[in-house]
Amino acid sequence: MGDNAAARNQLPHHQVFDVSADGLPQTGSKCFDDDGRLKRTGTVYTASAHIITAVIGSGVLALAWAIAQLGWVAGPAVMLLFSFVTYYTSTLLSACYRSSDSVTGKRNYTYMDAVRSNLGGGKVKICGLVQYLNLFGVAIGYTIASAISMMAIKRSNCFHSSHDKDPCHMSSNPYMIAFGIIQIVFSQIPDFDQLWWLSIVAAVMSFTYSTIGLALGIVKVAENGKVRGSMTGISIGDASLGAVTQTQKIWRSFQALGDIAFAYSYSMILIEIQDTVKSPPSESKTMKKATLISVSVTTLFYMLCGCMGYAAFGDISPGNLLTGFGFYNPFWLLDIANAAIVIHLVGAYQVYCQPLFAFIEKNAAKRFPDSEFITKEIMVPVPGFRPFRLNLFRLVWRTLFVITTTVISMLLPFFNDVVGLLGALGFWPLTVYFPVEMYIAQKKIPKWSTRWLCLQILSVACLIITIAAAAGSIAGVVLDLKTYKPFSTSY
């Protein structure tokens, strides 16, 4: 994955280390950490902000629909199960940040470094492939979600001005292009550790739109005078009455698992976030606290938003709570909520993509160390701020990356199905399998011991859930493609 500040590797030695009287670099000084890198300054709160930015993403908006497929019993139960598994495996993963010793062991700067140190072999390549494909997929999913929210603002105003007489159909393409242009600018932020301010803004935005969604759900329930929904979810029967066939029920239930998995997905960037945290205390202790805070907060929000959305709409819960137009008024509040979603997704896109950017740039610098195009940094003066480090390779490759994700988003603008598929593909390998296997290797847990068996049962159970979720989401995408025309989707 490369380190979270790949550019630091390109600095001359006198910029990276303090130098003692005998000319040798000193580590562990006031300005540098024990590995000779610039002192990490992250805390429980900045790490929590990064995690919340990554976790409370657009996935929260699909939870009412997911619970509608599963019902009042299975829906909240599955959500609690995913939250527990995510928290537990994240604590296992955070213990792998340092090799062998939690205080003085060698740092693993990235998820792939941790896999390399603990497992090695072909598993490193498999991990990298799954991780980077997932990060790439998340960028596509967030581009789709942001465009839908921007369109929702335009449509709610259109409905309001036409008194609901105009269907207000529009293309999603201009909105995806606008989001892409914004991301090209923000993608030039060199390193993960310079994103803390964007993460805090994004985290605030995520609470804003989640709270609005929750409040609107409560108002809708009060307006209905009853709690909608059933114990088993959407009913099987006549489609004209909002029911589904038995086959559709199965596929949708599987897809709902993927949507919930996506809503909790952040393990793929946990090590990168941990590499921004200062010590003492040990990074694993800080990360465990940040994980507990973040997962607890997000689970509370998820339960409230998902359950209130289902209580408000029952079986007809929209796939996206704030853009599915279950709510129409007050339209200005919906506009604020959708604007908050867009701002949040700008930050979330960067939190997920920076590790991928760093990986490509580190490997390019390693392969072509003499190329000025790749390694040279131009200091651009910024009035009132520190000079901006402009790198031509970073400018070109990151711009091409954003353009690629934007074009693919325009080709496949299926929010619910894409979210479910991403959640399914990333959940088992990155959230469960690798953390469990690395923890077993690092702690030298004996094979066939009680602890080893429990960890393997957890892994296999999550694999079965992942396969089911992927199947449901693929079935949804196939169904969407039957009525789809490239670059001409309108809402």
From TrEMBL:
<comment type="function">
    <text>Carrier protein involved in proton-driven auxin influx. Mediates the formation of auxin gradient from developing leaves (site of auxin biosynthesis) to tips by contributing to the loading of auxin in vascular tissues and facilitating acropetal (base to tip) auxin transport within inner tissues of the root apex, and basipetal (tip to base) auxin transport within outer tissues of the root apex. May be involved in lateral roots and nodules formation.</text>
</comment>
<dbReference type="GO" id="GO:0005886">
    <property type="term" value="C:plasma membrane"/>
</dbReference>
<feature type="transmembrane region" description="Helical">
    <location>
        <begin position="70"/>
        <end position="89"/>
    </location>
</feature>
<dbReference type="GO" id="GO:0006865">
    <property type="term" value="P:amino acid transport"/>
</dbReference>
<feature type="transmembrane region" description="Helical">
    <location>
        <begin position="195"/>
        <end position="219"/>
    </location>
</feature>
<feature type="domain" description="Amino acid transporter transmembrane">
    <location>
        <begin position="41"/>
        <end position="478"/>
    </location>
</feature>
<dbReference type="InterPro" id="IPR013057">
    <property type="entry name" value="AA_transpt_TM"/>
</dbReference>
<protein>
    <recommendedName>
        <fullName>Amino acid transporter transmembrane domain-containing protein</fullName>
    </recommendedName>
</protein>
<comment type="similarity">
    <text>Belongs to the amino acid/polyamine transporter 2 family. Amino acid/auxin permease (AAAP) (TC 2.A.18.1) subfamily.</text>
</comment>
<dbReference type="Pfam" id="PF01490">
    <property type="entry name" value="Aa_trans"/>
</dbReference>
<keyword id="KW-0927">Auxin signaling pathway</keyword>
<feature type="transmembrane region" description="Helical">
    <location>
        <begin position="290"/>
        <end position="311"/>
    </location>
</feature>
<feature type="transmembrane region" description="Helical">
    <location>
        <begin position="132"/>
        <end position="153"/>
    </location>
</feature>
<feature type="transmembrane region" description="Helical">
    <location>
        <begin position="44"/>
        <end position="63"/>
    </location>
</feature>
<keyword id="KW-0812">Transmembrane</keyword>
<keyword id="KW-0029">Amino-acid transport</keyword>
<feature type="transmembrane region" description="Helical">
    <location>
        <begin position="421"/>
        <end position="440"/>
    </location>
</feature>
<feature type="transmembrane region" description="Helical">
    <location>
        <begin position="452"/>
        <end position="479"/>
    </location>
</feature>
<dbReference type="GO" id="GO:0009734">
    <property type="term" value="P:auxin-activated signaling pathway"/>
</dbReference>
<comment type="similarity">
    <text>Belongs to the amino acid/polyamine transporter 2 family. Amino acid/auxin permease (AAAP) (TC 2.A.18.2) subfamily.</text>
</comment>
<keyword id="KW-1133">Transmembrane helix</keyword>
<keyword id="KW-0813">Transport</keyword>
<dbReference type="GO" id="GO:0015293">
    <property type="term" value="F:symporter activity"/>
</dbReference>
<feature type="transmembrane region" description="Helical">
    <location>
        <begin position="395"/>
        <end position="415"/>
    </location>
</feature>
<keyword id="KW-0472">Membrane</keyword>
<keyword id="KW-0769">Symport</keyword>
<dbReference type="GO" id="GO:0012505">
    <property type="term" value="C:endomembrane system"/>
</dbReference>
<feature type="transmembrane region" description="Helical">
    <location>
        <begin position="331"/>
        <end position="352"/>
    </location>
</feature>
<keyword id="KW-1003">Cell membrane</keyword>
